[in-house]
Design goal:
Layout: E1 5-6, H1 15-26, E2 36-39, H2 45-54, E3 56-61, E4 64-69, E5 71-75, E6 85-90, E7 93-94
Parallel strand pairs: 1-7
Antiparallel strand pairs: 2-6, 3-4, 5-6
Helix pairs in contact: 1-2
Length: 95
């Protein structure tokens, strides 16, 4: 079963969400249900937070439409060598 897709260019998200998603897509991190890790200097925790809060789109499921975030989750280690890395997952394939 293929993942749902999300077209950044035609979406109604704000410019901050679109910029973050474009950065992820350009880095090749554009597939749903795939764990990714990115350096916090490329996309910051605050950018992921904004995307998680404001990056919901209408998704149809079980006969009704409901808001679904493009970003499933993100996490940043609190210490250690991976401290500047952010792990994340998407709910949609980015177009």
């Amino acid at each position: 079963m293929s993942s749902p897709t999300f077209d950044i260019g035609t979406s109604h998200l704000d410019r901050f969400c679109k910029a973050t998603l474009t950065t992820l897509k350009e880095a090749g991190m554009d597939k749903a249900d795939t764990p990714y890790v990115i350096d916090a200097t490329v996309v910051s925790a605050s950018e992921f937070s904004h995307l998680l809060k404001h990056g919901a789109v209408s998704a149809t499921g079980e006969g009704r439409a409901s808001p679904r975030p493009v970003l499933r989750n993100y996490a940043m280690p609190r210490g250690g060598p991976q401290m500047e890395k952010i792990g994340f997952n998407l709910n949609f394939d980015l177009l």
